[in-house]
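A note on notation is needed here, since sequence and fold are reported together in a single record. The reader may check this reading against the record printed directly beneath this paragraph.
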Amino acid sequence: MHSKLNSVQTILGNDPGKMLEAVWRLPEQCAEALAIAKEAGLPQGYQGFTQIMVTGLGGSAIGGDLLRVYVGDKAGIPVIVNRDYTLPNFVGPQTLLFATSFSGNTEETLSAYQQAIAKGAKIVVITTGGKLKELAGNDGVPVITIPGGISPRAATGYLFIPTVVVLQRLGLIPDASAEIEDAISNLKELREVLKPESPVENNQAKTIALKVYNKIPVIYGASGTTEVVATRWKGQINENAKAAAYWNVLPEMNHNEIVGFEAPGQLLNNLEIIILRDQADHPRVQKRMEISKTIMGKAVSGITEVHSRGNTTLARTFSLTYIGDYVSVYLATLYGIDPTPVNMIDLLKRKLVEE
């Protein structure tokens, strides 16, 4: 298996949809998204908010999760992520609502958008086009149009950076431009050690992919820091490697899941634990991680810790996200699976249309 991941030809040959190219371009994507959002038109009167909501699904919702955690100590009002056809009852004129759909045709988001219009929420649409952009144009709702041509899960920069920029332009959070630029620089450095040309012995993503190959990865993050990245790792392994993966968050898992490492022993031995760590993790959570390792370590295949890299919150968050993205594509190589198609999702959508 080492030979597969040390062969650039094998890796690229397994990637006809060029997922790795999209992963590689994340720094440039973030820079483009920053420029697009700074130039986007925002109407007068977008003020007096009591909550911020991001409504979307899948890759279009992960930006909302990142926003929720990132602005938790910056914004004076809550950020809520909605993954549903319907909106909570409290949504109204005091709600700033981001309707995010990469394709612009996500049926749940279209439904939520129309409810937001009826409730009088102040809406900003982030999309490549589709029905959502058409509706927004008819309703006079501002649209931040992002480039298409890639999978929604590969568009994290396009879907997340504009939400940050809009909040800073509305005066809801401090200017984050310098932090975004720092994250971009950090990603450019990191990709040099994660790229296909980097051999297994020097490439953390390849090493982790080999550890989780033929295992079931379980990814743990920490509340308020790496929780969203743990979700992201799980989703990327699902969609890119077409493999099972699961996630949870500390300290919550210490109050339930930690008890579940006694039986069945044969299955537990096929779990590979990945713990995402950040310097901003709560000190008590850091202690919990150490104790949890000793409890789980007796039952599972192995435990790998992945530490964030960077000087700022965004840089460190994106570093962990980036490592996970590369892991998922290298795992797809080991399984001989094209990372780009998501046939089961496409099948589900077709069945829904038929119904």
Notes: The mean pLDDT is 96. The chain has two domains: 2-16+190-335, 19-175.
